[in-house]
Amino acid sequence: xxxxxxxxxCQMNERDSDAMASQLKAQGHEIVFSxxxxxxLIFNTCSVRDAAERKAKGKIGYMKKLKAxxxxxxxxxxxxMAQRLGDKLLEELPHLDFVLGTGQLHTLPEKLEKISAExxxxxxxxxxxxxxxxxxxxxxxxWHAEIAITxxxxxxxxxxxxxxxxxxxxxxxxxxVINEAKTLVANGTKEILLLGQNVAAYGLNGDTRPPAAGxxxxxxxxxxxxxxxxxxxxxxxxxxxxxxxxxxxxxLARSKKVCHNIHLPLQSGSDRVLxxxxxxxxxxxxLAKVAELKAAIPxxxxxxxxxxxxxxxxxxxxxxxxxxxxxVDYAQSFVFKYSPRxxxxxxxREDSVPEEVKEExxxxxxGDLAARVEKRLAAMKNQTxxxxxxxxxxxxxxxxxxxxxxxxxxxxxxDEKIEQGTLRNVEIVQTNPVSLFGKLV
Length: 441
Ligand code: 5AD
Ligand code: SF4
Fold this sequence. Notes:
- By secondary structure, the chain is of the alpha/beta class.
- It has helices at 11-26, 50-69, 80-85, 87-92, 108-118, 131-134, 162-165, 174-186, 217-226, 246-254, 271-276, 283-296, 315-328, 355-378, and strands spanning 2-7, 30-31, 40-45, 74-79, 98-100, 122-124, 144-148, 150-151, 170-171, 191-195, 233-237, 261-263, 301-308, 332-337, 384-392, 400-404, 409-413, 423-431, 436-440.
- The chain has a six-stranded parallel sheet with strand order 2-1-3-4-5-6, sandwiched between helices.
- The structure holds 5'-deoxyadenosine and iron/sulfur cluster.
């Protein structure tokens, strides 16, 4: 069967789609990249904001036309929106064949067999712990690979749908993750990105309290990965700030392979809003952790997620967010306009901040970010940095690009030895507000 998979949402979803694609290929199916060519269309969806759901529904709705001219076409919806809406999707979209929840993704190949044999519409959203191992160990063999080390989330931030659609947090065993990493590296992987809704909670069995001093299963995992010969870089996303204890910080500072960049979601800089969001830190404790990390790892960079327009967010609350962001000096930030999610606690409150105000706050933070980035890049002129070579630059075929450990992209002219997945030193010769250009040294 020719299968087309379209992904919405986060890196975890991208990774899940890759895993589903490899599973299908292993069973003799072909992955295609256009809807018209396909015998089956799979939409791996996101529920984190209403806009993501509307986009997917719009697209799936539009596929009715394709099915009208190709009645044998199979259409399935998988992932977070599938989990959240289940049977309702079948009612809403009469041309849809099946719905596959987040705990059932590993069963896609058998579900495709079932639907093509029986032609009976179904929705399967029963959570299964088998998804943890069922979705592991599928890789495409590139220099970069991703490993999901945890699935689900136990934190219940008041705005967030994830604990409801992805279920309780579960971790893979250390042995399982290390074996997967070793197989990847033996097949040419140089950089591994560890994924989880809260990676730093790895191995804590769902306990949401900050781990005791001296104890961090996530740090133990990083220490083991560090020992794998041939692996050059380890990245991870995203950790929750309260899990950075002495043990973890010590590992991050000591490791030669763990990159000096942390995606550390802030969400808000106002203590009142943080409390209402059920985030277990304050502006002060967040900043103290950042200071501790900066002291231990001087060249570290941070990126973050922030929500603007949470119910009741005032100009003063927003001003505090802005202030914290400038103080941390994030190298990258993702700003989201608050979107009430039915089922999440905050959706019981009125979505009180008008859309124009959300947009205005969004633009202000984007402007601040652009100014910070320009300054950071300008300061890098004449520095020599080590990059992991990624390949030809997306916008200029004459150039190649690579990323520093601190997650900053550098463009440069290639030489005859240039090779993807190798470490090279580059001297920065030119900067502009958004990019760095250098020459190989
Ligand atoms: N509205 C807006 N943004 C949200 N996020 C999560 N839930 C919501 C919501 N209801 C954002 C958070 C999270 C990122 C993945 O999405 O900032 O870190
Ligand atoms: Fe979207 Fe969150 Fe689900 Fe990822 S985990 S697909 S961001 S709802």
